[in-house]
Queue: 3 jobs
Job 1
Amino acid sequence: MVADASPKLPEISAQELLAKVQTAKVDGLSGTVHSSADLGLPALPGVTGGDSGSASGQLTEFLSGEHTARVAFAAPDKARVSVLDNMAERVLTTDGKSAWAYDSAKREAVKLQVPEHKSGKPEKLPQSYDPQAVAKQFLAAIDPSTKVDVSGTEKVAGRDAYKLRLTPKTDQTTVGSVTLAVDSKTYVPLQVTVLPRTGKDPAVEIGFTEVSFAVPAANTFTFTPPKGVEVTQPKAPTTRPDVPKSLPGKPDTAKKPDIKKPGTAANEPTVIGEGWSSVVMIKGVKLSGDGGPVDQFLAGAKSVEGSWGKGKIVTSKMVNALITDDGRVFAGLVTAQTLQDAAAKAPR
C-alpha cells in the first residue's frame, strides 16, 4: 500500500497517542481493506494458492499473497465482510439475528440463527480483515521491552494519520517493528505494517484503502442468496461462541502467566511466555507418515533435539515452528532457539 504525502498535524506524545488508540471507539464504519503477507514460509508440497478448498490451501492463502475485502460494522451486533479473490466472492455477514456464509465459487451458502446477544458488546470483524483488531494484538505486547514513539505522519485512505511505531527490544522475536497509522480524528488504526528483524520489506501490511466512519444502513448486513445457490441451515448453537482474542503466535490482550495450562481438550492451545516472546503449543498432532505433502514438507526441515526430546524446525523470516516427535507443535513470531526454550518449559 502506498500512502499519500505526510500531512501537518498537532504534535502528540507517544503516551498520549497510545492512550487514545487503546480507548478508540466508533459506532460504525465501512470501507475497503487491502492485506498483503510475505512471511517467507516454504511452500507446502502439493498445495497451490488456488487450492482454497483444503485446510492447507486456506492456510497458505492466509499467510501469503494479497487480498481485498469490503467491510462494514455497526454497533452493537452487525458486521459484514466480502472477500474478493480470484474472480470469486466470499461473504460473512450478520444483522444481529441471522448470520450468513456464502462462497460464490462453490455456489453454496450457510445460514445460522444468532443466539440472543447478552454481553452488550459489539460484534467484531474477522481479525484478518480488521486493522483495529490486528493493531490491538500488537499493542497488547507493549511492556518495558518495547520502545514506543511517534515516527511521523501520513495519509491513509485519504485521512490524516499519525504513525505510532512499536519496536521490540528483545532479540527473542522475529518482529523488527510494528507501525500503526492512527486516524487523527477517531484514533482508530487505519493501517498496520509489520517489518521483520531482517530485511526492509514489510512481512505483513493490512489497512484501509478507503473508509467512512458513518454508520452503514441496516440493509448493508442483510443477505439474499443468488438464484440456484444451495442453502443449508445447521442447528444453531444455544450460546454465542467466544471470539478468539488473538491469533497463533501473536500476543493476547489479557495478561498471561509464564505458562497457561491447557483445558480439558487434548489439543487446546497453550501459550508459553509473554508479549513478543510468546509461543503457542498444540498437543496431539499426528503426522501421517505416509510420505504425503506434510511429510515432504518436513523432510527438508532441520532436525533438532534437547531436553524436551527430538523434532524438526521449520523456519522463515517471521513465523517459526518446532514439530516434536511426540506430537507437539510450538509456533510463534519468535526465533528457533526461543521455540526450543519454550519446549523445555512446556508440560508434556
Job 2
Amino acid sequence: MRRVLALAACASATVYFEETFDSGIGERWQTSEWKDPMGAWVWTSGEWYTNEAKAKGMQASEDMRFHAISAKLDAPASTVDKELVVQFTVKHEKKDYAFCGGGYIKLLPGEVDPKAFGGDTPYAIMFGPDLCGYDISRIHVIFENKGENLLKSDEIKLDYSDKDEFTHLYTLHLKPDGSYEVFFDQKSKASGKLEDDWAFPSKEIKDPAISKPSDWVDTKRIPDPAAVKPEGYDDIPAEIPDPEAEQPEDWDAEEDGEWEPPMIDNPDYKGEWKAPMIDNPDYKGEWVHPMIPNADYAPDTYAKYPDLTTLGFELWTVNAGSIFDNILVTDDKAYADKMAADTWAIIKEGEKEAKDAWKKANKDDDDDDDADVDDDEEEEEEEELKDEL
C-alpha cells in the first residue's frame, strides 16, 4: 500500500512511505547482493497469528545469514523544518531465552544502489530493537553527523516483559525544534533534546587555551604538620601473651618444653602512627575548567536531513523468523497512531493464545512428554536469567 498524500485519516499528513504487505513483498522491494550467500526474505504471517491477512509481513527466513532489502520512498522525506515519524512492527517469532538478532530499519539519503546495499552503505537514521538473550535488550536510535554515526548516550532499555516473541510496534518521532520521542507499543520510552542525548557538538567546550595552574592546590585536608608522635608510641607491641591463659595441668616441661601462653591482639596497640588530618590552609577548591562557546555548535543542523530517499533492513540474523510489517514514514504522528490502530492493535490481540494453540496442534503424540519437559526446562532457564538480571 502506498500513498504520497494521505487524506482519509489526516488531511494534512504527508506519507512518504507506507507498506502493510497486503499482497506480497512486491517489486518496490529489492534484495541486496552485498554478501554471498544472502538470506532469503519471504512473505508470510508466520506459524501462528489471529488475523492471517493483517499479520502477513516480510520475514528474514534463514539462520546465520545477512539479510538486506531496501525500497525507494514514494517521495523524498526531510527533517528540515518538518516533523518525521518512522514506525514499523517486528515479530521475533523464533525468540527464546537464547535469541539473538537485530530488528532495526535504516533511512538513507541520496542515490542508493539496492544491489550493493549493506553494512557499509551510509545511512542517516537507524532505528529499532537490538536483542540478544536477556542481557542485551534495547532500542537503537543512531544519527549520522558529519560522517560519524552517533549512538544515544543512554541506552533505551526494554523491560523484561517486553522481550518476547510477539508483535511489537516501534515509533520514532523527530520534531523541527530538535526534540525527539521514542515509543514502544505506543508507550513513551525516551524523549528530550537531540543535543542533550547524542554526542552532537555541545553549546560550550572547555577552553583549550587554559590548563589548571601548576600551583593550584585542590587537596582539601592534609596531615597536621605540627603533630608529633607521642613518646613510647612505637614501644607498644601489636600482640601480647594472653594474661588469662594457664598452663595445662598435664604439661610436661621436659617433653613439651617451656610453656608459653598463646599470643592475643594487644588492646592497647593503636596501629601505625599517623598525624591527624586538618583543613589545608592553602586549599583553593576544585578547579573548574573555563568554558567557551563551541564554534561547531549548530543545533539547527542536528539530525536535519533534506533528502531521505530510501529505507531498508540490513541485518545479521543468528535466528530466523523475524517478521517486519506496517512500515510507515510520515510527517504526522496522528496518522501513525491511526495506522497503528488499523494494523498492530488488531494483530497483537490474542497472539499468545494463537501461539499456544499452534504449539499444541503441532506436537506429535509420542513427543508430548518430551516437549513438555523441554518447555519446562526452557521456562526454568528463562527465570534463572531473569533473576540474574
Job 3
Amino acid sequence: MKYEKILIRFGELSLKGNNKMTFVRKLASNISKICNVDLKHIDIMIDRIFIPYSIENLNNLNYVFGISSYSPVFQLNSNLDEIEKLIQKIDFAPHKNFKINSRRKWKDFPLSSLDLNIHLGNFVLKNNKHLTVKVKDPDIEVNIEIHKNFSYIFWEKIKGLGGLPVGVSGKTIHLLSGGIDSPVAALEMIKRGVQVDFLAFISPPHTDETTIKKLKLIVDLITKYQIKSTLYLFNYTEIMNYIGLTSNQKYKIVLMRRSFYRIASSIALKTHCLGISNGENLAQVASQTMEAIHVIHNQSLLPVYQPLLTLDKIEIISKSEKFNLFPISTIKACETCELFAPNHPATKPSIDVAQALEEELDLLQGLEEKAINNNIERLFFKINSKIDIK
C-alpha cells in the first residue's frame, strides 16, 4: 500500500461565498511555495486541494495557514472492486471498532453514500470477526471519497493551522522586539491572512550583535509561514539619547513609543501597508495600560492591531512554544525599550503632557525625519533561501 496524494481541507474558506475561489487559489499558490511543489501538480477542487504525497510535503503543510486539516490518501479508480481490494489490505487487528464514512461526489456511482457505508461496513465485518461498528469516536474511521475519475481512501486526519491564506488581507508594519510577545503577535496576524513586514529599533553600541542575530532568527523562522519577509533595522541611538534629555523622566518610554509610531507610520505609508501591528498585552507593563496605549497610539496615522491584547502570559508562552519561537525569544539580549526604561515610568500619562514635552524637544521631529532617510537597514528573507545570520 502506497500513498499517492495529500488531501487538503480548508474549512473557513468555505464561508467566503463568491470570493471563495480567489482565497482557494491563493492558498494553492502558498502551498506551492512552502512545499516547493509546482502548481501544475496541484489539483484544485471546490472544497479540496490535492498535492503529491511525500513526507517532506506532509511536514511542510505544518507551516501553511488557511488549512483546517489534511490527510495522506490512497488513490484508485472509482470502481467498487478496487475499493474493496484496498480496504481488505487495511490492518484492522489493533482495533476493536470502526466506522465507514463515504462521500459520493460523483453522482453516477452505482451506490449512494449511505448504501456504500452499509456495503463496505458489512464487507469489513465479514473479514474481521472481532470488530464492531461504532458511529461515534471509533478506533478507526475509514473515509472514502468518490470522484468521477478517481476515488480516495484515508483514515488519518492531521489538524492544520486554520486561519486564512497569507496575503489575502493586506500588509502591516509589525513592531518587533526580541521578546516572547511580538513574534507570537506577528504569527497571529499572519494567521488572518496578513503579510507582515518587521520594524525593529536598535540602539548601538548598547544593542549588541546577539540582539540583532536574535531578531534575524525570529524573522527567518516566521518567514517559513509567510514565504517572504522584510526586516527594517532602525538605528535609534541618536533619537533615544535626545529623548533622554526630557524634563520629565517618567515620560521617557511614552515619548519614545510615540516616536516609534510616527516612524512606523511613515514607513508603512511608503510601503503600502494598511496598518501597524504589535505584541501589546493590556496592563502587562507601564506602557501598555489603557491610558498609555491611548497616548502612544495617538501618533499612528494608521489602524493599530493588537492580536494579543487580552491573552494572559501562559497563553502567549504556549503559542510561542507551538511555533518553536520560545527557544529564540528567551535568548538573553539588550533591547532598546529595556535599556531606556526609567525606574518609575508614567502609567497614566496624558496627551497634553506628552505634547508639551515634545514641544520642549524641538529637534525631535527633524531627527526622526533624518533617521528615516539615513538610519534604516533593510534585510530581505525568503523561504527555502539560506540567510547569512552572523
